[in-house]
TrEMBL record, chains A, B, C, D:
InterPro entries membership: GlycHydrolase_4_CS, Glyco_hydro_4, Glyco_hydro_4_C, Lactate_DH/Glyco_Ohase_4_C, NAD(P)-bd_dom_sf
Species, as recorded: Endozoicomonas gorgoniicola
Keywords in alphabetical order: Glycosidase, Hydrolase, Manganese, Metal-binding, NAD
CDD domains in the cross-refs: GH4_P_beta_glucosidase
Coiled coil region boundaries: none
Name the UniProt record assigns to this protein: 6-phospho-beta-glucosidase
TM regions (residue ranges): none
Top-rank lineage group of the source organism: Bacteria
Cofactor note: Binds 1 NAD(+) per subunit.
Length: 434, 434, 434, 434
């Protein structure tokens, strides 16, 4: 176990340079000897650009890390220590459809949590299960670090249907940690938030700075919206009274759940002006790849910040570090509940603080989710578990029940219409439904 | 224990004649010697009309039952064997407001399950707890049979905050039983439905006729909508595919949850034409009381059928019969869950089949609520438990969280506006919030 | 479904005449047209005697019931409506060994609950699973009514490892009902006991006569030991204070758990004088079969009473009646817990009151087992579940853990010695361990 | 919060010098400014000796720590940051009785887990609750670090009946860690054991050295008994097969549960020769205090090792360090289960690995206790919870049920006799039972 092989599935992603930078920065702690970037035929060109940039970055750092790009996923997975997944089935075009379809029905078009995320789950789960079969065969001791959204649902599919050691990741909790720290004039590394909930629906239940409970100050800061960062992450559209009543830190995505009307209106408007988020990202991506392709470029370009995904590499490589070096650090991850949230089913995925060591992620016991949060958590969890079943069986009935259970969907009739639309527009990408 | 005293709180209700008729019909099984009708000052006149009619009915039947009307609730409760509650704090005027307020915010204005029902719960719970104090003092062995809506929430308040022996009732399950029986050309008494869920959100999980499982036929009948009764009770606005996917019998109120858009549209339309349900009922009531007042009238008038509340007396007196005569019959009631639905909190009220005997209601173990139903059940249960807390504490924050958790309410901002409206318009009836 | 076929596995048992008598008595309610008695080669002779007696009994009653004896189990099971199991693998000789082995190690030698019952479970479970395979193939709609001990363990094996509809039975609860009724000068049919626990370790938590709670009187009667029957069933060796402290009605077998020392002493003594229970029963059996064989004998002989097993036919045929006629009666049965006892695992067998109808047994929700009973229940349940695993896998380690977990076994060293002895002495009957 | 006040209840204990040594060694991490040793009138002399030795030790180390001895408990507790309890109600004489009484009834006389520990719990709980009242009033932010046995039961009493922030401690897990490490030729600090169970009944479920799973090797070493330390801690009286079957690391006290016969025999023998453990310790104590009293003695004397209680100061001061410095270290502690062991009641104490920081102890989710361990755990937990109830209410019935539930007690009759003996011999120390 003296050197690490990383396999990056979806290696042609515009995020990859951040990952490469992270590897370079952690060279002391993480003896990476090989990074194998995989992508599909369609992403060949981008993959090649990323490969070039990555090599230049490694070279500049003077490191002896072999960077390879391949379309042969099995080759990449073979003997890997960590398989990192950040792929997007159908690419940004599919995402654009995911965001547009719901809007036709006056429903929020969000790519991870609404019907859009549902479509994405249907496309993604069969692929990740295929990847897991390869891991089981070719690298049975490898850790699967999944970033592919909807991360909570994808992780649950892997936990329930494979034997692969797997952890789901998201940059939302770390973003909240940084924002809350800033609002309290504290250092992020001294700020600890007790997180528990679901992916993209996680609450910060208590905030500690150097062990001191500063939850009430953090909530007050959230209400005042004094901190620019805080505003950015958790917008002040929440009323003061609601935040006071809730008395925990919501995550940015909670706006979609607690402020449905407002968010739908905003989405509607922007979809008519600057386009949906996917449509905007497509442009950013184009620009990014032009920059990446330049033979002079040998570092992570500043323009990547615009793309979002802040802390992405920090979150994933800190996790790799904690596993590889048996650190027993605490990270917020998507894993099997196993009773950590006592009134949630034990066999589902939750997003929760966990001690990470070489044996994996060990959730810190949270106890019962309070009644004022439990209803929403249970509703979303039911939707997620149904989405896993639908994706795996290709059963239309399960899909309809999943979509009806989704809190963004007002109505079973609307669910049925959207389902038809989703299945139609994703036909070639959803073989399990044909 | 040779003869029974019934106390009827809200005795001036237009439903009372049905109850009287039921008592008369069951004279062999239920040796009722006294019926004490109580109401508040405002309902004095109606109470007197009901008293007159009731006495004429009893006299006509040649029975020796003392019928009394009083404004002194404590006198009525003293030494009663059964206290039946069917009162409405604020009367139909309050109900009309409950139905109108949500519509202003594009939200379903339903008197029992939405924000309307929430307002009703806030008004009702302090009163029922007062009644319970009287029972604890004056008739500690009495059974409280509660029909007052929202029956699930009111029952939970009583279970959690008093020592009174209490069972909540609703005529929805028996209505479903009759409709399903008709759709299968079976007799209602030979038709058994496995019910489990919450009040006004109960599902029929399996249907048996004389022990034979005919669930699939009942679902097919529901889809075809062949039976007139079935149509009436569970409207065919559900799509065939949705019913097939759900694969259980929804209750009529499920339309509000599963078909929110359609139901809102309909309500909006009728509120502008024939008025809300409360406004229509007010007219019916007026007519009814004119008929009741006639000295010639000595039976339950046929016009009462129009009022709704079918089977109301059957449900409540069958329960009284099962308790008094230790029958061990199975009825569908609102009681403490106690683990009967294993993935629901043990200390909340559920609507479920239970064996009824002199010791009370013993729920039949249901097991885990299936994932496709659990999300909605949990969401509504959380709302209900929060509503109980809000009603008891008068805490605005709890009230806001309750309303936000209600599935009809799209948004915390909307919840806040509606809460202001509800508290304002019910000011004199909600002393706990002042 | 106009007439019933009963298959009786272990039909050569001396108990069978009681069953035949029961069928004859219930001819109005239960249209039995065929009784098929099956046994193994070794029991051929007894089977033939029982067949003869049964036919004479049916004939005398003037009934048209075909009584058949066969060694072909599959033939008997084919198209049966009810399969009743009362067989004993290895016969009374094996039982005698079961009772003798523990005594060598100063451990209670009880045929159902201690190491003796463990040995019996190891022998029985593979056979019952074979029977279930036949039922799944040849009579998939049949009900398996299991009387074979240890009934709780055998039932759990069937529930966990087959798809057969199955209910486990025991005559202990009905015996307690009769004894308690007598002690209260009440009729058994008016006496209702709330039973919950495990097989041969069930408690009567509350006692009602015609709906009136008379638990405290029943406990007082138990302490006074005034009733002869009560003495017989639940011996007064319990101290007054212990019964008062326990405050529920223990079952006769609880003496083995709560009065280990006394019971061991008694067993030791009687094993040296009149022999173990099995050894005594062997003699009774011999006498019985002589009587049965007489061509004049055409009814259940009185001498059968001595054999024990009172109410055996009542319990099993009442159950058959409740299922066949969809009665929704309440009986005490061994079935899947499914949350009925909320602090017990959901997927194990418990002995509990249940509503019985054509769809099977529906346990009445009990709630949490009180802490003063829960420890013992959990310990015995763990032992039982481990015994099922051991019997099915033939894994010596599981067997050792099961035996160590048994409350009669003081010590892992003793468990190991007894296990060696059990496996050695049952070698030919435990193929799974070879 | 710049300097720490420690209050040590039972400060006259012979263990105190180890604690003082520990404080001196940790002076960098723990800025202790005051150590207040409290004891009762009877322990005045010893307390004075300990005070003298402690002052000489602090002086020798050149530290500015104020060491005080007092009989005024409230004074000691006022404004303390940590209250450490290591007192023994009734002293070693009471312990000697605890150990002798059970032996009269052929029952293991262990001072913490059997009837002896039960007597100790009855004496200790009222006193610790009094201490907690003082803490609530005089130092509401203080942490109670309890070492007083039976630590699991005492901790549960504090958790259930006070608001004091409290953690129970035991040196058994650290002893196992050291022994297992030695058996694997690993460093203790690189050896991590997944502990979960109850106090003095905790299992090591998995063993990791630097993140590598070496559980099977540790079990093999245990079987071979190759390591002297291992032998000492977990004696080889366990058979190889039993340890293989169990497949986890038992704790030393498990011998009393799994090897009852052997242990009882040994105790019987030694009680007749060298005396019970308490009787031996009395002699050691006398010698120790002679040494302590010498004005030349200014360090922890080597003879203390003989007394037992290895790692005692390490365990408690590491915990104080983790709390004070918000370290998020993992320690094995006795705390509220809260769902960490999912099939154990949530509101009871368990012994489990937990993350320790300034907000307290956060148990790491363990999941369900495996069936082969669960029976014993549940039985002992029931006993412990009943013992808490008995100690608090002084209810003889509860006490009898507790004692009957204890796995060392064979029989309710024996329990009753022992209870009489315990209450009689502890009369003046058990006011709640008079």
């Amino acid at each position: 176990m003296s050197s690490i092989k990383l396999a990056v599935i979806g290696g042609g992603s515009s995020y990859t340079p951040e990952l490469i930078e992270g590897v370079i920065q952690r060279v002391e702690a993480l003896p990476v000897s090989e990074i194998c970037l995989v992508d599909v035929e369609d992403g060949k060109e981008k993959l090649s650009i990323i490969e070039g940039l990555s090599r230049r970055m490694v070279e500049k750092a003077g490191l002896n890390i072999r960077v390879r790009a391949t379309l042969d996923r099995r080759e990449a997975i073979r003997d890997a220590h960590f398989v990192m997944t950040q792929f997007r089935v159908g690419g940004l075009k599919a995402r654009a459809r995911d965001e547009r379809i719901p809007l036709k029905y006056n429903v929020i078009g969000q790519e991870t949590t609404g019907p859009g995320g549902f479509a994405k789950a249907l496309r993604t789960i069969p692929v990740i299960l295929d990847i897991c079969k390869d891991i089981e065969e070719l690298a049975p001791d490898a850790w699967l670090i999944n970033f592919t959204n909807p991360a909570g649902i994808v992780t649950e599919a892997v936990l329930k249907h494979t034997k692969v050691k797997s952890i789901g990741l998201c940059n939302v909790p770390i973003g909240m940690q940084y924002a809350v720290a800033e609002s309290l004039n504290a250092k992020p590394e001294e700020t600890y938030i007790e997180f528990a909930g679901l992916n993209h629906m996680v609450w910060g239940h208590r905030v500690y700075v150097n062990g001191e409970d500063r939850t009430q100050e953090a909530i007050a800061a959230l209400i005042e919206g004094g901190s620019a960062t805080m505003k950015n992450i958790i917008d002040t559209q929440f009323s003061s009274e609601f935040i006071q009543a809730l008395n925990v830190i919501p995550c940015p995505y909670h706006r979609y759940f607690y402020l449905k009307n407002t968010m739908l209106e905003e989405e509607m408007k922007s979809s008519k002006t600057e386009g949906t988020r996917a449509e905007q990202v497509m442009k950013t991506e184009e620009e990014l790849f032009e920059i990446y392709a330049s033979p002079e470029m040998d570092k992570k370009p500043e323009q990547l910040e615009k793309r979002g995904g802040a802390h992405y590499s920090k979150v994933s490589l800190n996790l790799v570090d904690a596993i590889w070096n048996n650190r027993k650090d605490i990270h917020t991850v998507n894993i099997l509940n196993n009773g950590a949230i006592s009134n949630c089913a034990p066999d589902v995925s939750v997003e929760i603080n966990a001690v990470i060591d070489s044996a994996g992620a060990h959730p810190i016991t949270f106890g019962a989710m309070p009644v004022e949060l439990n209803g929403l958590m249970q509703q979303v969890k039911s939707y997620e578990s149904l989405a896993v079943e639908a994706a795996i069986t290709g059963d239309r009935h399960k899909a309809l029940l999943a979509l009806t259970a989704n809190p963004f969907v007002p109505d079973a009739n609307v669910a049925e219409q959207m389902l038809n639309d989703i299945l139609e527009q994703n036909k070639s990408l959803l073989p399990q439904f044909s």
